[in-house]
Predict the 3D structure of the following.
Amino acid sequence: MKIQAEEIRRLCKEILLQLGTSEDGSEMVADHLTDNDLMGVRSMGVLRMVRYIDQIRSGYIDNRAKIQIESVTDSLLRVDANHNFGIIAFQELLPQLIAKARSSGIAGGAVVNCAHTGRIGAYSEAVSGQFMWSMVFGGGGNEKLKEVAPFGGAKGVFDTNPYALSLPIGDDDVCTTDFATSATAQGKMLVHRTNKTPVPTGWIIDRNGNPTTDVEDFYGGGAMLPSAGAKGYGLAMIAELFGDAALGKPHELNWFMIAVDLSRFVQRRQYLEAANALKHEVETCPPLDGFSEVLWPGQPELRKKHEQTAAGIDYSADEIKVIQSLAQRFNVESPVQA
């Protein structure tokens, strides 16, 4: 069933307001979740509201906490979310990070003591839209979030410790790679659980270290495997060290973001000519058997957003039940038309 994005945005915002989130904060989180569903990143969309509600009510997310930003140096920022949404903390960081990068050529920002950050590619994309290169990564949750096994290990030690990197690839397009260092994002496990579907082989092990495709084995004490074996594990370990040993014990994960002003190296027109040439070469590469075309990183999500903005977001029957349940619990008009 298709639902217009504005209806999902309204549902999320009204619930967040009822839970005591500020007007601006409710808009930020609702916009973020809706945009993720528009892009087809369902693991970071409206389904997250179920967990957010529980986390606000338990106090894990302090949705009324003041977010504090300080300049550490002329080119470094530190944002203390005080257990508020990481989504809101990043939105507070972005304009100041961009301004510092414009002034100094390069800037970095740490986000600490935050709850869930959502899709981190959204933040690197926002920075790259200002003609910058950007990277963000997070880690440090090994004391609380033991969801991913190290390479060769039989139990969870890390969280998913994701990375996102973005660069402009056209006048309006941004090329983004946004990935968990585990075999999949934790939110995708939630999607499989909601839809009662098995996960692909190679994603998870059960509590005894045995391979499994039953998503309930993960929630029953199992773990995800690292992406690409030792490669994903290596990236996860670096993120874990920085997020923990450098930035301190996190509430969930600690994060670090970098912005580089591309104009310090190249004129915009010259850059876009080279970027468009590479984009064309990728798009015209002959596809392998089983593929209809070759896409650049971030293109599938941008295409999906364009399609669903016009036609509505396509939710499964089980996802519709979750949306209806959310509306009923908070006595909010349901986005699902009878």
